[in-house]
Fold this protein.
Amino acid sequence: MAQFEIVCVPNAGAATPSGVEWGPTALAERVFASRLAPYVQDTCRSVEPCASDGSDDLAEAAALARSTRDEVATVLRARRIPIVIGDERSLVLGTLGAISAARERPFALVSFGARPGLRVDPTEPISERALALALGRGDPDLCALVHPSLETHNVALLGPRVVSPDEARWLREEAIWLYSSEELSAASSAIDIGERTMMMLEANGVRDLFLHVDLEVLDPAVGPGVRQPAPGGLDGDRLLKLVSYFSTTRFENLGLALSEYDPTRDRASTTLELAYGVIETFVRHSSHLYVR
C-alpha cells in the first residue's frame, strides 16, 4: 500500500507572473515515472483553482487555503503522508491547517527558503506573509487555519537571505531559530546543523515535524528554475543532505511541502532533478514511518 500521496496546489494570486503554474504537474509526473512508484499513490490530488477576477486576493487565498486543507486532510485520513507541491509558499497555510486539525499535540516546522515569509504588511503578496499568517499575525480567517497549533519556538528557518527590516526585527524579538544561507554553506557539516536544530525542537517538547522546501533556497547557479532567484543560495548536495537528516530523525514526519518550481526558467531540467531529489530523499528515508 502506498504510504505517500501527492497534492498539487495552484497559485494563490490573481495572476501568475511566470511559468510556476506548470511546476506542480511537471514535478508530479517526474515522480510517477520514477522508482518511487511502490511508495507513492499513482495519482495526485489536485486542488481546483479559485475563480477570481483579481479584485480580492485575500478572499482567493483564503478559499484556496481551505481547499488545500481539505485535500490534505483526506490524505491524512487515508493514513498516508502528504507531499504537497505548489506554485508558491502560501501553500503552507492550507497544508499546516490540515496537520493542525489532525494533531492533538504541538508540532514543528522546518522550512527552507530564501525568504522567511514573515511580512505583515497587507499590501504584500500572500506568499510573503504565509509564515506570519501561520503564526497568528494578519487576517484572522487565514490565521485561524493554523494558529495557535504552530508556535514561534517550534519553527526553524534554514537558508533565508532576503529579509526585510520588519522580518529581521520579528526574528530577533521572537528568537526564531534561523540559519542563514551563508551560515549553512559555511558550516563544516550539514549533520551538525541538523542535530542542533533537532535538539532545540526536542527541548521544546515536540516530537512531530513537517518539512517545507522552497526551491528558492537554492543558488541560481544550480537551481535556476524558480520564480524569484536570489544569489548566494545553497548548493544541491547540501540541501539534499539536510533533507535526508530531517527525514531520518527520531521525530515523526508529518509531510513535505515543495514550492516555487518554475519549469520555464529551468535549464536542462537541473532544478526539476533537484526538486525530484528532495522528494526521493524524503520518501526513501521516511518510508518506514506512518501517520498515526
